[in-house]
Amino acid sequence: MAFNSLSFLIFFPIAVMGYYLVPNKMKNLWLLVLSYYFYMCWNATYALLIFFSTASTYLCARLIQKIAEPRGKKLALGLNIGVNLGILFLFKYYEMFTQLLVDILDPLGVVFVPAKLSLLLPVGISFYTFQALGYSIDVYRGTIEHEKSFLNYALFVSFFPQLVAGPIERSENLLPQFRQVHTFQYDNVAQGLRIMLLGFFKKVVIADNAGIAVDRMYTYLDKFPGPVLIFGVILFAVQVYCDFGGYSDIAVGAAKVMGFDLMRNFDHPYFAQSIAEFWRRWHISLGGWFRDYLFYPVLRSKLCMNMMRKLNKSGHRQLGRILPTAIAQMVVWFTTGLWHGAAWTFVAWGSLHGIYQIVGNATQSYRKKLAKKTGWDRVPVLPKLVRIVTTFTLVCVGYVFFRSATFGQAYYILTHWYRGWGIFADPAGAVGAFVSLADSAYITCIILISTAALWLLELYERKKNQRFEQIVAELTLPVQWCIYYVMLFAIALFGAFGQSSFIYFQF
Q1: Is a pLDDT exceeding 60 seen at residue 17?
Q2: Nearest to 447 by CA among 432, 462, 434
Q3: I need a surface site. Which of 125, 134, 341, 407 has the fewest CB within 10 A?
Q4: What pTM, to 2 d.p., does this model score?
C-alpha cells in the first residue's frame, strides 16, 4: 500500500481512529496488526520475512544479554548478522553476483550455470533489515537493554509509517515510545497533518511531474541536445529529492498524528556546501547507520590502526590521518552504492561519492590556505554560493549513474552534455527543446513553478530556522487555511496521480 494511493487515504484515518479508541493495552497490538496488513498489501508471503528478521534479532539480543563471555556474545551477534544479511543477499544480490561469477569464469574456460531463483525483491527489505540489525548491535555494545516485550519489538521493526522506506530508526529513539501511552493531542494531529500535506505536495505535484520528463529523457536520450540533457539531470535531482523527501515527510507526519516522533531524514540537502555536508543532510538515518555500524568499526580495525601507527612513526602524519580514513570511507561508499541497488551503476555512484569525500579531505588544508592568500574567504556570500553550486553539480554528476539503467546511458549523457548549445541562437526553438523533454508546456510550467515555490520555502525555513509546519502554526487561522486550500487544490489539480510508486521502494 503506497502513501499516494486511495487505499492509504482510507486506511490511515481508520488506523488513527482505532489507535485512539482501543484500550491502552491494545494500542500496540492494533498498530502491529495494521502494520502487517499494510505490508501484506504488496505481497502477503513476504510478511514472513519481516517476522523472521524480527524473531531472529529479538532472540539474538536476548541471548547476547544472557551470555557473559565476550566471545559468545560476538559469536551470537555474528551468526545473527550473517543470517539476516544472507537473506538480503539471496533476494537482492544473488543474480548480480552469480552473473559476475559467470563473467569471471567464462574467459578461464570454466562453465558455471547458476540456479535461476526468479525471486521478487521484497519491498523495504533493506530498510527493516538494517533497523533490526542496528537493534541487536546496540544490545551487543550495551547501548540499550534488551526489549522484554516481543510485541513492542515487533512493532519497532514493522511500524507502518516508516516500514518500507525509512527513516531507519534507532532503537533508543523509537522503542521507548512504544512503552508510552499516547493519547489524542490536537497539536500532534495538526502538526502531523501539516507535515503530511507538504510531503504529498512534494511527491505528487513535483516529483511525479518531474518524473514524466526524466523518464522521457532516458527513453529517447539521442533526441535531446546537451543543454536539455543537463536540464533532465537537474530534474532528476528534483524528482529524487521530492520523491524520497516527500515519503519521509508523510512517514514522519503520519507517526506524529499518533503521537510518535520519527527522525527527520532530510535537512535542506541542496544547500550543502560540500559533499560531506550533503550527506549530513541527505538520507540522514542511513548515513548515521553506516557511520556508527560500519565506518567507525572499519576505521578502528587492526588493519587501519596499524597502518596509522606505521605511517605516523615514519613521519607521514598527514598520510597516516588520510589513508585509513579513505579506506573506511571507500568501504562505506561501496556498500552504500550496493545497498541502493543490485547494479554496478549504483556501486559506481556510491564509489564516486567516496572519491569526492577523499579528495575533499585531502585538499581541505590547501583550499583553506589558497582562500586565505587570495582573499577569497573575505567575501562571505560569493564563496558560499560557489560551494553550493559546485556541490550540487557534483551530486548531479553522481545522479547520472544513479538513474541510468546501464553504463552506456551514463556514458552517453556525460559525453553529450556539451553538444547542441547552438539551439540558443533561436530563443523560441530553445524553449521548444526544453518543453519537449516533458512533451508538454503545461507539465513543464507545473514543474518549474512548484519547484521554485519549494526552493523559496526552504530558503525561508533556513532563514527562520524552522520547519514548514512550525512556520504555518504561528500564522493566523485564516492564513493557515488559505495555505492548506492552495496546497490541496494544487495537489488535486496539478498532481500526476498514478505516475509512479516511490523511488526508494526498490531499495
Answers
A1: yes
A2: 434
A3: 407
A4: 0.92
